[in-house]
Amino acid sequence: MQKEPILRVEGLRTTFTGDEGTVVAVDDVSFDVNEGEIVGLIGESGSGKSVTALAIMGLLPKSTSQVTAERIMFDGRNLARASDREMRRLRGGSIGMIFQEPMSSLNPVLKIGDQLIEPIRIHERISYRAAFDRGVELLTKVGIPSPVQRMNDYPHQLSGGMRQRVMIAIALSCSPKLLLADEPTTALDVTIQAQLLDLLLEIQAETKMAIVLITHSMGVIAECADKVVVMYSGRIAEQGPVTDIFDRPGHPYTKGLMQCTPELTGNPRRLTTIPGALPSLSALPPGCRFAPRCGLAQPACEAGRPPMIGVGQNHASACIRADELVASAAQPEGAEV
Ligand SMILES: Nc1ncnc2c1ncn2[C@@H]1O[C@H](COP(=O)(O)OP(=O)(O)OP(=O)(O)O)[C@@H](O)[C@H]1O
Ligand SMILES: [Mg+2]
């Protein structure tokens, strides 16, 4: 019998209400994360990746946002029905998080050591000394030199890369079963990004925790992920195992993202972009939201929301031409749709 996924998101929807009314930022998003799996969540800026992660964690502002879901099952519990208290216990406990901006996630007036020790002592009733030792061990694990001294430093005394390593250490401090990593390396330079991704992969191989890795980069997905969920304008455009998606993308948006990735096109000097931009949440097209930018769009694409079409095992695409796209990818060069 197949094991239940560690995280199963079903029908997640998030709206924001402001002066100009209510907009739907995440619309009917469903995906699974199996134990020990790395799932890449990709899409252009504004596609709803962070909102998805924050909604799962119950971290969106209650005054302006509304989150609904059929179910958000994590390790046997439905987070969609969990109390604030239960969510607080899970966050930083069985679910670790790393955010886009390490400077805004670390408290500038607290020493690194205190920020590491506090969550450990909240989640596990151990002595200060034992938690301090664990903190030092974690800093060592994430490659921070002189870890005992660093415990007494404040965040501003560390470089951006070192701060992000501290964030990783904090996220790992209670041995989470699931890590939500929202662009954990974007703010850093390329070499440091690569080092930190390698570090995350190393730790994942050792701990077997599941990771939802949010990124802009198909290159990062290719290197790290087992499965990929492609988001566009608050909805899932395509999802499936990484090899299937790379070999046989079933959505023109996924193809576009791949063609914009120099490491994948074999032409690192040619920078391509997908023409056009994401629609505004207050003026969404009625049919496929990608249709206005899609070279393959037909009148039917504008008529209604495209259904998810299965194009392989656990591989589905929200494009009415998905079968055609997948079939053409299986053809020799030059015969593509
Ligand atoms: N607190 C909020 N109030 C109102 N709208 C919001 C709020 N947070 C996000 N949004 C809107 O929701 C949409 C999705 O935003 P989100 O931050 O999830 O995008 P993203 O995919 O993470 O982008 P990026 O790659 O830039 O991080 C955007 O249109 C954004 O403006
Ligand atoms: Mg984001």
Task: State the gist of this model.
Helices cover 34% and strands 22% of the residues. By secondary structure, the chain is α/β, with parallel strands linked by helices. The radius of gyration is 21 Å and the shape is globular.
Q: Could you give the topology of this structure?
A:
Blueprint: E1 7-18, E2 21-33, E3 38-42, H1 49-57, E4 65-68, E5 71-74, E6 77-78, H2 84-90, E7 95-98, H3 102-105, H4 112-123, H5 128-141, H6 147-150, H7 160-172, E8 178-182, H8 190-207, E9 210-215, H9 218-224, E10 227-232, E11 235-241, H10 242-247, H11 252-259, H12 262-265, E12 309-312, E13 315-317, H13 322-329
Parallel strand pairs: 3-9, 3-10, 7-8, 8-9
Antiparallel strand pairs: 1-2, 1-4, 1-5, 5-6, 10-11, 11-13, 12-13
Adenosine-5'-triphosphate is lined by residues 16, 25, 43, 45-51, 64, 216, 281.
Organism: Nitratireductor indicus C115
Membrane topology: Peripheral membrane protein
Main location: membrane
